[in-house]
Design brief:
One of its GO terms (molecular function) is methyltransferase activity. This protein is an alpha/beta fold and about 300 residues long. The protein has nine helices and nine strands. It has two domains: about 60 residues, no CATH class; about 200 residues, 3-Layer(aba) Sandwich (Rossmann fold), CATH 3.40.50. The protein has a seven-stranded mixed sheet, with helices on both faces. It has a two-stranded antiparallel ribbon with strand order 1-2. Helix 4 crosses helix 9.
Amino acid sequence: MASAAPNPSSPNPSVGGSLLLRPPPPPLPSEVIDRAGGRGLAVWIGEGSVWMSRRSVNPSRRVADGGLPSVGGLLHPKSRSPPVLTIALVVLGVIILIAYFNSGSGVTVTSREAVSRSEGSCTPEVMQALPYLKKAYGNELHKVLHVGPDSCTVVSSLLKEGKVEAWGVEPYDLEDTDSSCKSLVRKGFVRMADIKFPLPYRQDSFNLVIVSDALDYLTPRYLNKTLPDLARISTDGLVIFAGNPGQQKAKVSELPKFGRPAKLRSSSWWSRYFIQTGLRENEGPLKKFEQAASKNKYKPDCQIFHLSS
């Protein structure tokens, strides 16, 4: 008896008592991603069935679709620095920059300004001592020469008295000066000169010579020439304002035009030096000056020497 031909649409016969099923075909490579809230919807289409699954989508994959992610998102996709920390870092950087630029690495001052602002400056002391000098010297304070920085200020103050004729010698530059000082220079009341060399004045040209912030910057070699020359042009004496090593400290970074820091010498050193150069203490004006200063409780920070030749 002939057997019937197998139907291709019928299932396969059992083998070994078990039913052999045909495996389903692999899913088609059709993937559609719905980017909503950072998650994706995947859809596979097979033969006779459609099934879906939701899964997370890496934010970095958005670049392939035309998006431009931020640098912070690439480095730290799920973490961001708090705004407070960012502001604090910016403020700290600004403070560091301000401190750096104010450290003086790019600041320049003229030699005259350096001496006037330094801790060893005695020129401001001259302005404070002028009232007591007037009481000490009286009529002798008629023709006065000031030698030192800010001579324009000292000369201008003396000229306002009306009875005093005053001149000044500026041992430093006169480039950065105000209009008042330039006027004194044009009129010949103030001049710039190197005090290491003899000044262009005749002997006994002035009653009194006041010196400040000048001798402290001279070496003994030039001091031996300058001090006798100052005594030469004075009839009634010298008043020298010198730095006090006990209360002041010269700044090495603020060098004058002479190219060296101030040498602050003790009163005993000056006393010996004055004797060697033939100068003596001017006792009369000294006592009057000390009495007037004590009465007004004036205590100078600089050393003040009253000398006569």
